[in-house]
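A reminder from the course coordinator: this example appears on the midterm review sheet, so study it carefully.

Given structure:
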């Protein structure tokens, strides 16, 4: 690994659960410009085991005490979705920068409250839409911005599959669980339609917005048959780009994620892998000018570590934010709510009109 830089962001991770174990602890320890300074979890067994495994300098069982630590620069919020907004606001009010897991919130209203808190604090809040740190997607984004000209149409799909657990179990570290972990009062998986939208829909929406910008309205249809959830969404982008999103869960095939983009001066075809393979998407960029296709290798496919490094650069070096900000996080939640309402009503729903949660 490259040597650590002299100036490093001291990060405290709130939550020692699945995503912290599979991504954030390692990302902080490998990052050139950040350190895993502290771990906070109410589950004593989990917290202490993870602190030893990953070499965190400090551990806290109480979030307020971690936030009161003057040597802590920033937090990664790696808790269940309903805790994201209150935990983010607490950190901002304590003068800490925040990298919050996706989705940034579960209702439109709480995201607006968080947006106000971010603006008042003057601190950085980045949302953990880590696909923005896939070198293939970044190459596509640069081509769209610099060479492709008018973006005519975008299709994107995110299909989680029935074989995903054997795949992820094989490549992730053993995930340690604890009976003492703090869980939301309602089981998030009690309503699978809502759970799948929050867990997966926000990735798909963020990818679409990353390439084609703001979404104005959606018209969604949902099929729930044979244990397969399938949302087909007709998307109106503010730019006039024609959009179609396919969110399917329990698809009977391999992990299936990607996008097609048609522009004035070229096209882009992308195939994205299950994130736990840490493999950069295969993105073929066709330039009309020379009639040739270009594909970046992206040897470094550690999206989560690259996300933390970029977050740290924004704070330490005042580099522009490459990740999703609070406006992107809010827009993603609005789009998920709009898709849910549209699937129920059969009507087109404007994002500006939605309230409540998915
Ligand atoms: N970006 C991705 O690819 C990706 C993948 C999986 C999960 N996620 C997101 O990560 C988040 C966390 O998911 P998870 O499955 O790791 O959750 P989890 O429930 O397994 O772990 C959360 C941990 O946080 C602790 N915790 C919660 N509130 C606390 C508090 N106030 N003080 C101290 N400890 C507290 C709990 O005890 C628990 O151990 C979710 O929002 C999920 O959507 C993102």
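Designed residues:
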């Amino acid at each position: 690994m490259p040597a650590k830089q002299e100036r490093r962001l001291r990060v405290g991770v709130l939550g020692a659960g699945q995503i912290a174990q599979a991504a954030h602890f390692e990302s902080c320890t490998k990052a050139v410009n950040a350190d895993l300074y502290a771990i906070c979890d109410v589950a004593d067994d989990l917290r202490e085991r993870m602190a030893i495994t990953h070499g965190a300098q400090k551990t806290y069982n109480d979030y307020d005490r971690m936030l009161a630590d003057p040597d802590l620069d920033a937090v990664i919020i790696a808790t269940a979705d309903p805790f994201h907004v209150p935990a983010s606001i607490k950190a901002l009010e304590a003068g800490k920068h925040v990298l919050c897991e996706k989705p940034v919130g579960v209702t439109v209203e709480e995201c607006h409250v968080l947006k106000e808190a971010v603006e008042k604090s003057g601190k950085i809040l980045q949302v953990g839409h880590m696909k923005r740190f896939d070198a293939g997607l970044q190459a596509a984004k640069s081509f769209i911005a610099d060479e492709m000209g008018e973006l005519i149409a975008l299709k994107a799909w995110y299909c989680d599959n029935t074989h995903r657990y054997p795949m992820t179990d094989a490549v992730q570290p053993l995930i340690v669980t604890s009976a003492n972990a703090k869980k939301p009062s309602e089981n998030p998986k009690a309503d699978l339609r809502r759970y799948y939208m929050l867990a997966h829909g926000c990735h798909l929406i963020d990818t679409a917005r990353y390439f084609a910008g703001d979404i104005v309205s959606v018209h969604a249809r949902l099929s729930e048959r044979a244990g397969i959830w399938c949302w087909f969404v007709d998307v109106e982008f503010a730019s006039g780009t024609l959009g179609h999103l396919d969110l399917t869960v329990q698809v009977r095939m391999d992990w299936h994620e990607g996008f097609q983009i048609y522009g004035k001066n070229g096209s882009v075809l992308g195939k994205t892998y299950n994130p736990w393979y840490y493999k950069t998407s295969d993105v073929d960029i066709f330039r009309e000018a020379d009639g040739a296709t270009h594909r970046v290798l992206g040897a470094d496919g550690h999206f989560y570590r690259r996300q933390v490094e970029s977050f740290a650069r924004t704070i330490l070096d005042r580099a522009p934010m490459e990740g999703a900000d609070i406006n992107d996080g809010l827009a993603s939640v609005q789009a998920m709510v709009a898709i849910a309402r549209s699937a129920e009503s059969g009507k087109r729903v404007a994002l500006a009109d939605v309230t409540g949660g998915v």
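Residues 192-212 form the longest helix (21 residues). Residues 14-20, 40-43, 46, 63, 78-81, 83, 101-102, 128, 130, 181-182, 199, 275 surround nicotinamide-adenine-dinucleotide (CB under 6 Å).
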